[in-house]
Amino acid sequence: MENMKKKMILGALAILMLLPVHAQIAWKQVEPGVWKGVVGTPEDYSLLDVAAVTPLKESFARLPEVALPALANEIVGSIQDGKTSLRIPLQKKEQLYGFGLNFQTVHQRGKILNLHVDHYGGKDNGRTHAPVPFYISSLGYGVFINSARYLTVYAGSGARKDSPNAPVVKDRNTDKTWTASPYSDAVSILVPAPGAEIYIFAGPTPMDVIRRYNLFCGGGTLPPRWGLGFTQRTQKLYTAEDVEKEADEFERQGYPLDFIGLEPGWQSKAYPCTLEWDEKRYTDPAGFVKTMLDKGIRINLWTNPYISPESEAYKEMYPVSGSHTVWCGIVPDLAGEKGRQLWKDKLEKEHINIGVSGYKIDEVDGYDRYVWPDVATFPSGISAEQMRQTYGLWVQRTTADLYKKRNQRTFGLVRASNGGSSSFPYVIYNDYYSHQDFITALINSGFSGVLWTPEVRGSKSAEEWLRRFQSVVFSPMAMINAWASGTKPWSFPEVAKQVKEYALLRMQMMPYWYTEFARYHFDGIPPFRAINLEPGFNPEQIITSELKTSNLEDNPYLEAIAKEIKDQYMAGEYLLVAPMFAGQTKRTVMLPKGNWYDFYTGKYVGNGERITVSPGLDRIPVFVKDGAIIPFMEATLHAPKAGQKINLEIRHYGKADGAYRLYDDDGETFDYEKGVYSWRNIKVTRDKKGRLHGTISKAEKGKPNSIATVTWKFMTQE
Ligand code: GAL
Predict the structure, then answer these.
(1) 480: helix, coil or strand?
(2) Where are the extended beta strands (E) located within 555-714?
């Protein structure tokens, strides 16, 4: 009898073990407004560990105090089949943003994504350069899954039979609003591991959510000033003489240039790479780098991490590389200390010690054939899948460390990234080339703690060339990538003058760009971001009549994307940029509530409305908020060096009073982390006669001060 009972209990237990285990999550506050919850047994290897995030603690104090969002207690996790599924509730009117670097839509509700590091293949299916498992809700909270696995996300698709908010059943024969993917009341995420770590970021606003995420990841990156100047990537197979000549040509023609990127050809072998200079094209690498530095131009090196059998590093790296090769090159196991150290030593010895200022680290994303297969193994024991999800993080972290150690800032390019990377000094790029989708990616980068450049390569016409150039000037990295095309800023003589004007505008706006990046660092505010984050923006404003008939019950995805704005964005605190694309002579611009002014003339343009503009080829439409204060400097060909003084021209727009804090530091080192920086208060108010009047606070003694003289320009004439 006893035995029988025992057997029955054991049997019942066995059945229970086969059923998914639903667990209520215990939330632990880890920073103000940031909570961590654990389901099952998460893996040791995670995105945040690889990125080695160190929260910027002191900055959280500047955000409003918040309580754990109520939905946290409704999040459930269950484990079945060695995998964890998470269910995070959604409300009817909620919109979702983020899930990494998407190229075609800003709203993500209703999508099914497989978050997988890859080269973007033309479809927003989760395979992208930075498939960051982080989303932000329009209701003002965010969710991050700290897993280095390929995650499957049902972003409000898939309805449970026991849902209290189930979609309405419809007859496909008779009801036109029938849809294959009806409304769902939750985001479901499948993590292929027996546990997961989840983070909740509170608002109250979606912008606050993003700020907390970026601050949690160490604060956004603060590039050196030169990183915000202009950069040209020269054609492949260039020699030292070709590069020097090109730099001289920029100078002679009066186009700004801060750094040059060398593309394949500087190494003795590429694909796989030796990491060693080609002796014929670069007979004296150290002398070459020095000559360039003397011209005021820094050198950035293209490479991929796969090491050629012809490299001196090959033999030693062999035992600490993966089981599979990439184009016959070995893959350094960067998750292991030894592999990382050997890679660092090589870069340091060959490049950094002779003055190279940064890297473009290519081919760390995928295309599947361009990386190791998922069956590869690595000596560190990290699986091929986890390595694929984190290799971009590793190359950023290791190279960033090398520069940090020298107290020298860098700013470079990378083709893969993931969660936790906000503080890495890298900008993502790719081989895709849709100007429109590049702008949508720029918008989405702001939701994921990454930077993106809509780089200019070639163009079919002078019009396209100028349109692309105008956009890249209002982005994190103003760049021509001429590796294949050999283009120069002046390649289309019909628009060479306009291109120069915009390249110089980039330089004139340096104090603004630099301050906005300081805000990215200290406050977590993305310098380039969606209009959806702008106070005064109301998405309901843009619902067109045909949409009035649809709702989230019918088709969440279609409704969401029909409401979105994916071709205009905010650049810094005050600017709304609305790029023009080749073939367009006019476009509409959605202005959030508040008075907006034309960037070039200071004239009033509208308030909380959709306007149509036809600016002509010479202008990219840019609009400015009422009361904006935008610091300009003279148009120089190189960014100011540490300690160099500039003449400030402070522009004010609109009728409202204005206040701005202008950031300053040496622009080159990490001394700002020790408090060696300053913020100058700029104010514009009206005097008794109603005339605008500007003031700037005095430079603090012993603090960095790059300002020589100040002039004022009140752009909006009454
Ligand atoms: C590509 C990269 C290009 C260029 C090229 C050089 O993979 O995306 O920007 O660097 O390699 O071969």
Answers:
(1) strand
(2) 569-571, 575-577, 587-590, 595-598, 604-607, 610-613, 622-625, 629-633, 646-652, 658-664, 678-686, 692-696, 707-714
Q: Is residue 555 part of a domain?
A: yes
The three-point CA angle 65-70-73 to 5° equals 125
Q: Which residue has its alpha carbon closest to ligand 1 atom 5? A: 483
* Position in ligand 1 atom list of the atom nearest CA 271: 12
Give the nearest ligand 1 atom to 481 CA: 9
**Same-domain status, 56 and 167:** yes
CA of 362 to the centre of ligand 1 (A): 7
Q: Model confidence over 469-506: pLDDT tens digits? A: 999 999 999 999 999 999 999 999 999 999 999 999 99
pLDDT digits (tens, 9 = 90+) for 497-549: 999 999 999 999 999 999 999 999 999 999 999 999 999 887 665 555 445 55
Inside any domain, residue 70: yes
Structural domain of 564:
528-625
Closest-CA residue, ligand 1 atom 4, reads 483
Paired strand residues for 189: 86, 153
Query: Rounded to whole angstroms, how far apart are CA atoms 101 and 428?
Result: 9
Domains in the chain, number: 4
Give 452 Cα–ligand 1 centroid separation in angstroms: 16
Q: What is the CATH number of the domain that holds 252?
A: 3.20.20.80
Q: Which atom of ligand 1 is nearest to the CA of 415?
A: 8
Give the distance (Å) from ligand 1 centre to CA of residue 329: 17
Q: Residues with beta carbon inside 6 Å of ligand 1?
A: 263-264, 302, 362-363, 431, 481, 483
Residue 274 within a domain: yes
16 within a domain of the structure (yes/no): no
Q: Ligand 1 centre and the CA of 266: distance in Å?
A: 14
Q: Does 36 share its domain with 115?
A: yes
Per-residue model confidence as pLDDT tens digits over 276-316 = 999 999 999 999 999 999 999 999 999 999 999 999 999 99
pLDDT for the residue 21 = 52
Q: How far is the CA of 371 from the centre of ligand 1 (A)?
A: 15
Final residue of a structural domain among 177, 197, 216 = 216
pTM of the model: 0.96
At which of 590, 625, 660 does a domain end?
Answer: 625
Atom of ligand 1 nearest to the CA of 457: 9
* Rounded Cα gap, residues 334 and 561, in angstroms: 39
Do residue 399 and residue 473 come from a single domain? yes
